[in-house]
Amino acid sequence: MLARQGLGSAPLLAQPLLQLARRLSQWATVDPQKLSASNPAACLNLVAGSWQPSRESRQLPDPLTGEPFIAVPHTQPDEIAPFVKSLKAVPKTGLHNPLKNPGRYLLYGDVSFKVAAEMRKPEVEDFFARLIQRVAPKSYAQALGEVRVTRKFYENFGGDQVRFLARGFTNPGDHPGQTSSGNRWPYGPVALITPFNFPLEIPALQLMGALYMGNKPLLHVDQRVSIVAEQLLRLLQHCGMPAADVDLLHGPGTTMGATMREAQPRSTLFTGSQRVAERLALETHGKVFLEDAGFDWKIMGPDVAHLDYVAWQCDQDAYACSGQKCSAQSMLFAHSNWVKAGLLERMAALASTRKLADLTVGPVLSWSTEAMLGHAQRLLKIPGAKILFGGKPLTGHSIPSVYGAVQPTAVFVPLAEALKPEHFEAVTTEVFGPFQVVTEWSDGQLPLVLEACERMTNHLTAAVVSNDINFVQHVLANTVNGTTYAGIRARTTGAPQNHWFGPAGDPRGAGIGTPEAIRMVWSCHREVITDFGPVPPSSALAQS
Ligand SMILES: NC(=O)c1ccc[n+]([C@@H]2O[C@H](COP(=O)([O-])OP(=O)(O)OC[C@H]3O[C@@H](n4cnc5c(N)ncnc54)[C@H](O)[C@@H]3O)[C@@H](O)[C@H]2O)c1
């Protein structure tokens, strides 16, 4: 019942229209509206251009009702040989590079154009938004936002834009006939691993970057949501992508790990937890780009303005998608002027309007209810700590117990206590759910706030909320987060496709979304020095 309510929060397209769209487009193999225990979906692996089942399937529970509704291949390590063979067959020079098969740059410009056109159709947009909602429940607005950002990315790389990604440069040489040129070269066989929280956007943007630059990726998406990536691949094939350009491995992460150990991809992009990131960094001997944990902070300066807007942005940043964004606001440093102005009460009021019925709060896929409430209790042992709002389980639902369900929660911890070594680790632990830590600072305490930022280990997104240019510049000058928003409208979440998104301060840090991110993650620099002569006379040759 809840599932129906949540998913029905946007106007439903008439069923006949959806069916017509499905018939016309001829690529989708599931109907997100109809997925249920009596009508389960079945996923398939893709290897060397062919869709294949695995020996066993895993029955995934509907995150809102617990009913099994999707059978996904549970590929085991003794079934990975075809994936290893497929990746090993790829040369280091890739499927294309600036000197080989350049027509494929144009092919991918064309594929991107067609995918964008498909995604512009209301029924296709709705298809992906609802499929996302079924496996990673979030409000319709959030799911639709994910689809639209993805579509805009495809729009950005239509036409000649893929070819321009591989743009190089030349420098004059030392003598006639010599020039040097820098080229963007692919790695060839590569791996791409993505988590559950953005089932369409993260796989789509990183996958295309890999393909655009001439690599052949082995894609693995968290098994609980990989049905979305499979449907995306079917759409890509429909729009002209050669079927053998990508392999898709459904199954446990450990099977992907085993495949990588055997196939030895020449580069890997991993998005997910810090635990798995560090493991892969060791296993790949450092040949990995990382988008890992996000413990994201927001510092509010002394200048209070636009209280309603700023409170709304805080609520969005901390609790949209039930806090399951790597960019979610994990810690808020509010200047006492904001606290006096009533910011925290407004945030509490906004959080109280979130409800399961429209999925503005919903299941948490990687933290249980007990773990989140246990973490709150741990924080409450810190002197002066208190619950500002939330801190209780959601009630009246059928979310299976493997998933978490808590109210949007904020725990206040005094700044001086948060900084103590015995508390700092707990205070700065990323809870991947609707959970944030709030603290307050006063005039003269900015060095303590900046000390907290200096001691944190992850530097993904950050926000400096102020229109005081000197204050903003001081905070920016003394922090490193890779995606930092500054100004009274600063946020931590909602990265669109028009700017770089990724961590900083770690040489393994990856990026997503922009031409620079694609070039950095999915290609390497190759310098070619041409030296065709004329050759100087023998009399001019001196030994050195
Ligand atoms: N920095 C970013 O851009 C970004 C974006 C989204 C999520 N995240 C982070 O992801 C985390 C949430 O996701 P999670 O906890 O489900 O991540 P996770 O690390 O458990 O899983 C991520 C992916 O890794 C795979 N995996 C697991 N073990 C593996 C192994 N041994 N070898 C190869 N692959 C393996 C999983 O199947 C999944 O596809 C949060 O910490 C969040 O901040 C980061």
Compile the SSE list and pairings:
Blueprint: H1 2-7, H2 15-25, E1 41-42, E2 45-47, E3 50-52, E4 57-61, E5 68-73, H3 81-88, H4 103-120, H5 122-135, H6 140-156, H7 161-165, E6 169-172, E7 178-185, E8 189-194, H8 201-212, E9 216-221, H9 226-238, E10 247-248, H10 253-263, E11 267-271, H11 274-283, E12 288-291, E13 296-300, H12 307-319, E14 329-335, H13 336-340, H14 343-352, H15 369-380, E15 386-389, E16 409-412, H16 415-419, H17 421-427, E17 435-441, H18 446-455, E18 461-465, H19 469-477, E19 483-486, H20 515-522, E20 524-531
Parallel strand pairs: 1-5, 8-9, 8-11, 9-10, 11-12, 13-14, 13-18, 14-17, 16-17, 18-19
Antiparallel strand pairs: 2-3, 4-5, 6-7, 7-20, 15-16
The structure holds nicotinamide-adenine-dinucleotide.
The site of nicotinamide-adenine-dinucleotide has 26 residues, from strand 8, strand 9, helix 10 and helix 11.
Detailed description of the structure:
By secondary structure, the protein is α/β, with parallel strands linked by helices. The protein has two domains: 46-292 and 514-524, Aldehyde Dehydrogenase, Chain A, domain 1 (3-Layer(aba) Sandwich), CATH 3.40.605; 297-486, Aldehyde Dehydrogenase, Chain A, domain 2. Helices cover 38% and strands 18% of the residues. It contains 20 helices and 20 strands. The chain has helices at 2-7, 15-25, 81-88, 103-120, 122-135, 140-156, 161-165, 201-212, 226-238, 253-263, 274-283, 307-319, 336-340, 343-352, 369-380, 415-419, 421-427, 446-455, 469-477, 515-522, and strands at residues 41-42, 45-47, 50-52, 57-61, 68-73, 169-172, 178-185, 189-194, 216-221, 247-248, 267-271, 288-291, 296-300, 329-335, 386-389, 409-412, 435-441, 461-465, 483-486, 524-531. The structure holds nicotinamide-adenine-dinucleotide. The site of nicotinamide-adenine-dinucleotide has 26 residues, from strand 8, strand 9, helix 10 and helix 11. Residues 62-487 form the Aldehyde dehydrogenase domain. Pfam families: Aldedh. GO terms for molecular function: aldehyde dehydrogenase (NAD+) activity; L-glutamate gamma-semialdehyde dehydrogenase activity.
